[in-house]
Amino acid sequence: MAQESEPGGESTLTVVLALIVNFLIGIMKAVAGVLTGSAALLAEAGHSVADTFTEGLLLTALRRSGKPADARHPFGYGKERFFWSLMAAVAIFASGAVFAVVEGVHTLISGDDAQTRPWVAYLVLGLAFLLESVSFVQASRQVRREAKAEGRPIPAYLRHSDDPTVKTVFFEDTAALIGLVLAFLGVLLHQLTGSAVWDAVASLAIGVLLAGVAYLLGRTNLGLLIGRQADPVLVRAAYRRIEAQPEVEVVVDILSMVTGTDRVLLCARLDFDDNLGAADLERACVRISAELRAEFAELDEVFLEPVPRADPELRARVLARYGELFPRPER
Length: 331
What we know:
By secondary structure, the protein is mainly α.
């Protein structure tokens, strides 16, 4: 996982840039929508309003998730980033997708085929595309850089990333560019055919697009909120590191949970060498834990529990969780 030099890091720049761009674009689209009577442009105005509100929620997520751990929250506030990002996904659906669908249905039912000043729509859509591209370039640059740092293709990085803020902005900007193309087609076909049906269809398509983005982001943040396992690459590497320790005979079980962006809680149940004394066991646990945190910066908390490998209750719990005893990772 990519590390950030300060709370928020480059993610804050990405979100702030997206907020400014969407605020400016939203004003332009709203004015153009009123002047032209285009349902697609009004839907895109709603889209930009939703995105602006979303960025505000993401900034809240970045600020609050950086609070240090305390007695009330001993594992820190990292999951606040996931909560506010989930609210951002809800905002995309409620403010963007629903508005776009309602606007499209209204245009279909009203049967009003009037279209005025289509050149205003083309001008605004062109300017919006240029501005949106600025935000998209920043988001995609961050995604590419972090994916490269993890040695993953971009789709795999987006699946495993525990930073929902940059993922949200990247998906938003991608949807925004596609939405602008849909709005352009709706206005153009309306002008060529004289039928507002095309404008309405474009608005409905924008609504469906936003609903899909909201679903993808909501599913990601739900998984992180309820306690998703850490990156499998990290888990396998930690497994090998623990297994290689001279005091450890068998790694019986290993559990992990993402507690925030670049924060992981790791618990390993280990069968230690029976010849170790109590003091030797204590020193081994302290050393192994320190080595793991030094090697893997994402590990925020490490718990090592000595257990017998043949304990039937523990074996049953591992089997119930994995369907088999914890698999030894391929070397």
